[in-house]
Design brief:
Blueprint: H1 2-12, H2 17-38, E1 48-55, E2 58-65, H3 72-78, H4 88-96, E3 99-105, E4 108-114
Antiparallel strand pairs: 1-2, 2-4, 3-4
C-alpha cells in the first residue's frame, strides 16, 4: 500500500512519528480521491504519480494525475464552516499540512502538500 511505503520513507528519513502518520493519511485521502472521482469520470486510462520529497525545511507530498481538473485548494475555500463533517478528509489534510498548493500544467493536476 502506498501510504505504508510513504510512512516508512518518512520515518527512515528522520520525520517524527506524528508527521509521518499525517503524511500517510494525506496520501490515502488525496490519492484515494483521485482514484475514486477522477478515474471514474470517463472511459479513458489515467495516470497517478505519488512522490515524497525531503527538503531541508520539511517534507512535501506531490500528487500528479491526468484526470479532469480539480483544485482542492479552491474547493476548500468554498466549503462552509457550518457543517464540519462535510468533506472531512480534505479538512483533515488541510488542517495538518503547513501548506497546500495546486497547479494545473499541461493538463496535469499537481498537488503539493507540505507536512
Amino acid at each position: 500500500m502506498v501510504s505504508c511505503k510513504v510512512k516508512e520513507f518518512c520515518k527512515a528519513h528522520s520525520l517524527d512519528d506524528r508527521r509521518a502518520y499525517h503524511m500517510a493519511l494525506a496520501v490515502e485521502e488525496m490519492a484515494g480521491n483521485v482514484i475514486e472521482h477522477g478515474f471514474s469520470k470517463d472511459n479513458r486510462k489515467h495516470s497517478l504519480d505519488v512522490r515524497v520529497i525531503k527538503k531541508s525545511d520539511g517534507y512535501i507530498l506531490r500528487i500528479r494525475d491526468d484526470c479532469y481538473m480539480f483544485d482542492p485548494v479552491k474547493q476548500m475555500e468554498l466549503f462552509s464552516d457550518k457543517d464540519i463533517l462535510r468533506h472531512i478528509g480534505l479538512r483533515m489534510v488541510f488542517g495538518t499540512a503547513k501548506d497546500v498548493k495546486y497547479t494545473s500544467i499541461l493538463k496535469l493536476n499537481n498537488l503539493l502538500v507540505r507536512i
